[in-house]
Structure formats: C-alpha cells, structure tokens
C-alpha cells in the first residue's frame, strides 16, 4: 500500500484516480508522495520515505527543487492542465481593456438610485466607449500550452496574431493555427502590436522582461496582459508607462501593493486557473504522474529530473537509480550488477543538467545487499526497487 499526503485541498475528482493500492495519510512524514497546490515546502524537512512531489499546477516556486533533486525526490508539475481556464480569463482581459466595461459597470452601481437612469445613461455612456479587438494585432510571447491556445483563440476572433517563441516544441508548432504568424524577433511584436501578452517561465532572463527599455520599443497606447508570472513585468516602469500614456491598460492576474494602486491597471485576483475544470484537470494529471512514477519508475513532466519512459516492466524486477550526471556512472552501475550475477534486460539513462536518472529492468530480483552496495557508489543519490 502506497501512502499519499495532500498539503492542500486537492480535487476529489483527481484523487478518485488513485487505485486501491493507495491510501491518503494525514502524516506527511510517512508519505511516499505529496500532492500540493500553493502550500510552501521550503521549510519542510523531508523524510527518507518521500519519493515524489506533484504540484497540481504549473508554477513550482513553492517547492525547493534543488533540495529535492539532491535527496532523489522527483518533482512534477502539470503543464497545460489549466490552459483553457487561463485562456478564457485572458480573453476576458482583452475585452475589458478594449472597452471600459469596468468603468461602465461602476457607473451603473454609482447611479443605481437614479430613477431616470435609462435616459441618463444615453448621455453618459460615451465616457466608456472603446474599440473592438477584431483586426487588431496581438503579440503572444511564448507559445507553450497556454500561449498557443491564446494565439489560436484570438486568431479565431479575427485578430492578427503574431507569435514569438525561439524554443517552440514540435507539438506546440503542430497545434498552432496557420493564421498565427510565427515571428523570429520579439522586437517585431514590440514595434507592431496593439496588444501584447506574455506566457514564458520565470527565469533569470525573463524576470522584468517588460521594462523601461522594452516598453520604449512599443506603440503608444499599447495594452499589456500578464497572466503568466508577476515579476515578468517591472512594476515601477509599468506605473510610469501608464502615467505617461505609453501603455493604455495593464491587465494582470497578480495583485500586489504596487499594481493595485496603478491608474489604468485592471487587476484580477489570480483567477487564471480558478475553475472547477482546471482544478480537476490539474489534480488528475498530478495523480497520474505520481502513480506512473511510483509503480513503473517513469518520469513525465518533472521539473528537476529528466523525462524517462520504459512503460510497464515485463522483467522480474525494475530498479531506479537517481544520480549525478558524471562520467562512468553507467559503467560502475552495470559493472556492479554483473559482479552480483544480475543480467540487465533493458535500460534507459537520461540526464538533465547536473542530475541523471537510470532505469533498469533485471532478469532477477536484487537482494538488499545489492541495493545497498549500489547506493555506496559516489554520486548516487537514491536507489529504489520499483518492482
């Protein structure tokens, strides 16, 4: 029986995919797997029993990835599971920024006691007039799961869509509408687009990417949408751009003390993935990733270890080895297996930066001494008998 601990409330729909071989526990220190949404793991002491952490969502800044990698703990996320929910909210943001819907609704509330409001409105509504998004240029920076869906949806609404992503995957390229223009320089988006939306991961190179310099390259009256990460936009530079009129509207799903006080900002309380469907999809994906790893040793959508898939083991045993990505590691592992008279019927080795993962199908079950001996090889972080 495998034990799972939920640090946050996880969708019951998703938890329903666990088989009878799993049980939920309230004791985090006895869990082999942890499911989490927003709770922070940075102050947590990990037990030796913990094998995997699955984040029901895309962002993993609440998880100490390096500490987990060193301990041989695989961290999963669920990219794309909430893509439709974010896409729909962003489309709402486009419309809110194009026409002063927020101001119009506020006017109606402020004048709710006016018995002649139906007539008064005809004189007042011109203050909230705006434009249509059809025919306008939208620049999508980042064409991953969410960016591609946004690009396709905007194109279907009649927008002229420019997409930029120097690292676009083959799958994402196939999913992209032929009506989306793939741009090779982000400066083209800055210079030509009426609306710009960012969908990139938070890295050293993307932090503060929307700043005084890049804003200066944009059209006057541009609309910026940020439904990806808070700090992709430099708040001080955005406030100055809004005040000068360089930026017409800034739509963000990330409230903070600065943006909520910006004139011209439309601030949404982080609702991108806050739909029942998104929470169900993320939970199901996290559960399926967790089960495949615990039962088969396969890694899919990990953020700290390489992807690896050997399907279901048909040999007598399967052993997983987490180790540093250093020379001669495979030679030492296979040599030790041979010294114990164990034949390797199938093997996969994958690496990601300084960490690597080796999955071996064996013709016979290794004993405890073999597993302990493997763990003594310098650079090996964890050895696990999967089957």
Walk me through the topology.
Elements: E1 2-6, H1 12-15, E2 22-24, E3 33-36, E4 52-55, H2 65-70, E5 74-76, H3 83-98, H4 101-110, H5 117-124, E6 137-141, H6 145-156, E7 160-164, H7 170-175, E8 181-183, H8 186-192, E9 195-198, H9 212-216, E10 222-226, H10 235-244, E11 247-252, E12 265-267, H11 276-296, E13 317-324, H12 329-339, E14 344-352, E15 355-362, H13 368-375, E16 380-385
Parallel strand pairs: 1-2, 1-3, 3-4, 4-5, 6-7, 6-9, 7-8, 9-10, 10-11, 11-12
Antiparallel strand pairs: 13-15, 13-16, 14-15
Report on this structure.
Helices cover 32% and strands 21% of the residues. It is α/β, with parallel strands linked by helices and 387 residues long. The two termini are 13 Å apart. The protein has helices spanning 12-15, 65-70, 83-98, 101-110, 117-124, 145-156, 170-175, 186-192, 212-216, 235-244, 276-296, 329-339, 368-375, and strands spanning 2-6, 22-24, 33-36, 52-55, 74-76, 137-141, 160-164, 181-183, 195-198, 222-226, 247-252, 265-267, 317-324, 344-352, 355-362, 380-385. The longest helix is centred in the C-terminal third of the chain and has 21 residues, at 276-296.
């Amino acid at each position: 029986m495998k034990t799972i601990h939920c640090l946050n409330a996880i969708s019951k729909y998703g938890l329903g995919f666990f088989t009878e071989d799993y049980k939920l526990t309230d004791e985090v220190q006895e869990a082999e797997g942890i499911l989490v949404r927003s709770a922070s793991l940075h102050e947590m002491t990990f037990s030796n029993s913990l094998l995997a952490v699955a984040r029901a969502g895309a962002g993993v800044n609440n998880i100490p990835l390096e500490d987990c990698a060193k301990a041989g703990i695989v961290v999963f996320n669920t990219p794309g599971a909430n893509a439709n929910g974010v896409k729909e909210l962003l489309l709402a943001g486009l419309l809110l920024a194009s026409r002063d819907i927020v101001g119009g609704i506020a006017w109606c509330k402020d004048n709710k006691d006016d018995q002649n409001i139906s007539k008064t409105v005809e004189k007042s509504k011109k203050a909230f007039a705006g434009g249509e998004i059809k025919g306008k240029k939208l620049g999508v920076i980042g064409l991953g799961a969410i960016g591609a869906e946004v690009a396709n949806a905007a194109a279907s609404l009649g927008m002229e869509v420019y997409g930029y992503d120097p690292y676009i995957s083959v799958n994402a390229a196939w999913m992209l509408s032929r009506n989306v223009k793939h741009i090779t320089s982000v400066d083209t988006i800055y210079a030509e687009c009426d609306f710009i939306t960012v969908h990139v991961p938070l890295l050293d190179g993307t932090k503060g990417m929307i700043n005084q310099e890049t804003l200066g390259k944009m059209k006057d009256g541009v609309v910026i949408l940020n439904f990806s990460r808070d700090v992709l936009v430099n708040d001080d530079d955005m406030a100055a751009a809004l005040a000068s009129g360089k930026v017409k509207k800034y739509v963000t799903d990330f409230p903070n003390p600065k943006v909520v006080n910006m004139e011209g900002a439309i601030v949404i309380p982080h609702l991108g993935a806050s739909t029942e469907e998104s929470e169900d999809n993320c939970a199901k994906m996290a559960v399926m990733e967790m089960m495949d790893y615990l039962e088969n040793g396969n890694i899919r959508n990990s953020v700290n270890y390489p992807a690896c898939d050997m399907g279901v083991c048909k040999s007598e045993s399967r052993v997983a080895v987490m180790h540093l990505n250093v020379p001669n590691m495979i030679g030492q592992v296979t040599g030790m297996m041979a010294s114990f008279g164990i034949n390797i019927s199938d093997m996969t080795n994958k690496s990601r930066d300084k960490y690597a993962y080796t999955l071996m199908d064996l013709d016979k079950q290794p004993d405890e001494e073999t597993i302990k001996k493997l763990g003594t090889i310098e650079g090996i972080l964890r050895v696990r008998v999967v089957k």
